């Protein structure tokens, strides 16, 4: 019985170490609020949807926040989004 406990503890530590060592993968995209035209960067790692739900997704998914800022800057300059 003691062997099983040690084996389970070792497996738990191994899984914890693996999860802690893997890099976090965040992704972002732009959403545009229908009533105001305001664009916002949305982090897809947030488990809920934006509220209220009167928005539209206006960009592809990008891997970093800086890439999302570039998309937002381009959308502002082209007139697709407002401040």
Describe this structure in words.
The protein has a 3-stranded antiparallel beta sheet with strand order 2-1-3, covered by helices on one side. It is elongated. The protein has a domain of 56 residues: Rubredoxin-like, CATH 3.90.820. The chain is built from 2 helices and 3 strands. The protein has 83 residues and is α+β, with helices and mostly antiparallel strands. It starts with a helix and ends in a 5-residue tail after the last helix. Keywords: Signal.
Low-pLDDT segments: 17-23
Order of helices and strands: HEEEH
Q: What is the CATH class name of the domain at 23-78?
A: Alpha Beta
Please state roughly what percent of the residues sit in beta strands, choosing from under 5%, 5-15%, 15-25%, 25-35%, 35-45% or over 45%.
Answer: 15-25%
Number of helices: 2
**CATH architect. name of the domain at 23-78:** Alpha-Beta Complex
Judging from the principal axes of the Cα atoms, what is the shape? elongated
Helix content: 40-55%
What is the topology, as strand order, of the major beta sheet? 2-1-3
Give keywords.
alpha+beta, 83 residues, Rubredoxin-like
């Amino acid at each position: 019985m003691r062997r099983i406990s040690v084996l389970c503890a070792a497996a738990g530590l191994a899984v914890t170490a693996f999860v802690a060592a893997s890099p976090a993968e965040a992704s972002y995209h732009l959403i545009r609020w229908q009533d105001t035209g305001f664009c916002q960067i949305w982090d897809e790692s947030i488990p809920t949807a934006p509220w209220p739900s009167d928005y539209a997704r206006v960009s592809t998914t990008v891997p970093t926040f800086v890439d999302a800022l570039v998309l937002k800057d381009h959308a502002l300059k082209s007139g697709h989004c407002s401040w």
